[in-house]
Amino acid sequence: MSFYNRRNAAVGYLTLKALQRSIDKRRKRRSGMKVAAYVGLGLVSAGVLAAALAIVLKRRQGDPEGATSFESDSEIVGEYVTAPEPVPAT
Predict the structure, then answer these.
(1) 43-84: per-residue pLDDT in tens?
(2) For the whole prediction, is pTM greater than 0.85?
């Protein structure tokens, strides 16, 4: 009795094809998940860049001279700097 006959060959062939199909389905599912992950990562990156751009534009628009409020020499703790009063002569 031979182990290699038409029936065994057909069963083996169909088994191999079924395994190949299941592997292909897994690959397709994974590639779909990769695409979704890349799209999500792209959206998050675009949001971060948009927020950084908004902060930069807001800082530029807020002070036309380019100096921020903490770098300004004309104010100390919210009050204007004035010249010291002269000491009266005695």
Answers:
(1) 999 999 999 999 999 988 875 555 555 555 555 555 555 667
(2) no
Rounded-to-integer distance, Cα 16 and Cα 9, Å:
11
Q: State the amino acid at position 76 in one-letter form.
A: I
Q: Where are the beta strands (DSSP E) in the chain?
A: 75-76, 79-80
How distant, in Å, are the alpha carbons of 55, 62, 66, 70, 83 from that of 74? Answer: 25, 17, 14, 10, 12
CA distance 27 to 46: 28
Q: Mapping DSSP to helix (H, G, I), strand (E, B) and coil, where does residue 73 land?
A: coil
Note the pLDDT of residue 11: 94
Q: Is the pLDDT of residue 6 over 70?
A: yes
β-strands 75-76, 79-80 pairing: antiparallel
Lookup result for tokens 């036309």: 64
